[in-house]
Design a protein that fits this description.
With about 375 residues, the chain is mainly β. Helix content is about 5%, strand content about 45%. The chain is globular.
Length: about 375
Amino acid sequence: MNNFIIAFLASSSLVAWAEGASNPRLTDLTAEWEVHPEPMLSGFHNLYCPHVLHEPEDPEFPFKMWFFGYAAEEHNPDHPPGGDQIYFARGRSLTDWEVYAGNGEWEREMDPRRYAPVIKGDPAPYDGMANGDPSVVRRNGVYYMAFSSVGFDLRPDEDGIERLYLVNCVLGATSPDGIHWEKTDAPIAIWEHEFDRPWEIVDGEIPPAPDEYYGGYHRPSLMFDEGRWKLWFDYFHPGTFVSMGYAENRGDFRDSDDWTIVRAGKEPLIKDWPNPSVVRHKDTYYAFSDAPGYPLEWGGDTRQITMAASPDGLDWTIQGHIRPHGRASSHVPVARVFHIDGRDWLYLFYAWKPAQQPDELWDFRYKELRYMRRPLDELEGE
């Protein structure tokens, strides 16, 4: 979830869930996971949402990773138009990476000043300010990406008064190599009234969204499954932080007219489910989120990595939470299923930020990309 939508949501109330045995989110699943002790990547300013693919057919770089944010300093001023941008890395292993530095060059010394974005904003009313939250599928030799996009649209309202509109949506892109991308001509998921509400600042603050606002589609999780494209995303649902919606495409990935919003609006899949990531293994779908609603004494902003399961990707049962470092500093999870060493593993990649002392100014910036895993045969009782 990019920094623009965070600012928007910060003006809205965060609904706390009841603390008690009846709340499945309080079930602690942490001990069931193997937490890797070292980061995959670090030394940057603020990067997160590490989406990793495993390509064992590539003997030199079997891992590919897309992630986003601010590489060396706030807002990426060295790469106009700035804002959140998407980066790419290739790995010999999950802890040995080199990051694309542009013009066919690779950064091996972990100097984020040399990182070159592979996707950044373009002039469009739904683009230009921020691109992030990459979710990638490789199919028939082509890389497909769904990602969050933010743009500003300056235009007159019905009274002829020029107003600024903030537009959040999900865009698509395709690539032959994971580096050079062609964006779709229009959003593949956007609320039908996204262009209707002016973006206004009152007394230096962003007012809360009105009760009828169900937009802000962001943080996609893309899958090709059962002969069609499936897309989970989060969006603003009044009375919640953000909740999870769902879209499908049975035709051309790049054609926005082929995408259909199946569940969103007043009927989310899961309430209070930001930054969703969904995978499937056999007959079960697994969803992860850095969901809110945990006890204040746990520290941080009381968000934890939370897990849910579903037989169809639509009806979900929350399983519990995971605290890999014992505190609320691990966010924006990305789930993947990899077959490694003759076994199916559920991997969970996430962003980490250092613990802060109570008297320190809250800092949202993520400083490391990390991962944990668990064998799927143990999870599914095989």
